[in-house]
Amino acid sequence: MDIYTRLRPSRQYKLLELTPEVLTILEAGTEELSIKASGKDSEIVLCSSDATFQIRQKNHTNTLLLMNHTQDGADERLVGFSSLSSELELTKVKGKIDLISKIPVYANFGDDLSRIESCGFLDITVDELVCRSPVSTSEFRTLWFDKYNGCEIEGKAVLLSRGFITQALNFVLTALLASELDMARLSVRDTLQAVEDTDYTHELVRTVLWKFSLFPTVNEQGEEQFSLDKAKVSKWYGVNALREHAQRLISPDEFLIAWKSAFPPFFDCPIDLQMLAGYYVRPLVDKIQYINLDTVVLVEKDPIKRFKMLFKLQSTWDMPDILPFIEDLNVRNLKIDNFIMKYAKKKRVGKKFVVTGR
Amino acid sequence: MPTIEIEYSQATQRLQSADSSGPAIISTPSGLAILEIQGELTLPSDVPLDEAEKAKYSLDSDGMDIVKFGKLELDGKNATLFIGQSQRLVGSLIKLDKPLGVMRFPETTETGNVPENYAVKFMDVITQKVIFKQRPLPIM
């Protein structure tokens, strides 16, 4: 067959190496796909509804012709219409919200927008923020509510402080207990009715429900339906109690009493020190102390220095207790035991494993 | 343009239709194929005026100038490409490690601006290519 090519190949085409996940989406044809970037020079990603892929350009020096194959009787030809010197490659990444540091933070309940205590200044809606973040919609919601305490107030994307969330959570929980609503089937509308306070907007209640529930389903009326996750609530109050005693060492028994008394009256949920792994260290065998994972531990990216720091804080760690402090370092996804052995010693004590320095 | 929706119904339709009888084995049912040659292919920039030379030139279905630069012969998975009168390339039809999605971006305007209603399309998915890895063999 004869081979032709255009004298001026089109520049409109790109070839994208498809991962099995993306190919499945193309085959099914039901999910949305989009290309996103947070700014002009930032990285470009491909997003499905729940996954984010970084797009990278791989250049090569070969001539790669994209061709149209036609057959007209005996005349069979291949006509090249685009010549490509690169292919695009996808790598699955964790989506992120680049602009998060520029979002204003509400410190106290009842603050008006002009008195926001923070360096944030970006004035955009949550929908705009989703558009401008290299992250899939589903990942965005998890990050926005779970990690950053995001909310929308007067049409602006804002973050709420821990104190703000605690106050709102107390209020919502107390109202829910009084209303006797089914905590496994909550909608924002029903919860708002139970709360009966005009200071509580739809968005604020939604933030509280997202933050302290399992991933919502959609009910018959098309509303998000939440099932309150007592473990999340319990952990929130536990971390609050730890922070209150941050200045001194506290015995586990004394701490559990402080934790139990932090809940709103009549709210019953299980507590277990294990739930707070990653938020405290045990400098002495029978004393614990709060530690801020984000600002103290995770900033140290060198595994050797990180482990050294951890063993300075606490010489012997129970295996489950040390995991939240080191998991982010295991970038090559080694089996976690093997990863720990590279930097520390693992010993068997009775029935459990402990980790110590070398 | 921080977010651009991708339109991919055409690719889905193609993938879902069981019909795999394209014009030939080297292209997808919608007629797309990839040909890869090591090195650069130098093309004339304009159609020459010389009548004898002109025979190689014609127009494609979009009315764009095209030039015939060779002849491809397929024998099973083996491919031979004759370029001009004096070169022969030996290659093969191979399955791609990762299927390639063919994306079409809209034409940018002359000022380099992105047009309104910017839409990116997935046209098709290609799973094989004809590749010529070896050096050209001269024909005497």
Automatic annotation (TrEMBL), chain A:
Pfam families: Dcc1. Keywords: DNA replication. The keyword Transferase does not apply. GO terms for biological process: DNA replication; maintenance of mitotic sister chromatid cohesion. GO terms for cellular component: chromatin; chromosome, centromeric region; Ctf18 RFC-like complex. InterPro entries: Dcc1. Belongs to the DCC1 family. This is Sister chromatid cohesion protein DCC1.
UniProtKB/TrEMBL annotation, chain B:
It is found in: Nucleus. Signal peptide: none annotated. GO terms for cellular component: Ctf18 RFC-like complex. Keywords: Cell cycle, DNA replication, DNA-binding, Nucleus. GO terms for molecular function: DNA binding. It holds the Pfam family Ctf8. GO terms for biological process: DNA replication; mitotic sister chromatid cohesion. Belongs to the CTF8 family. This is Chromosome transmission fidelity protein 8. It comes from Babjeviella inositovora NRRL Y-12698.
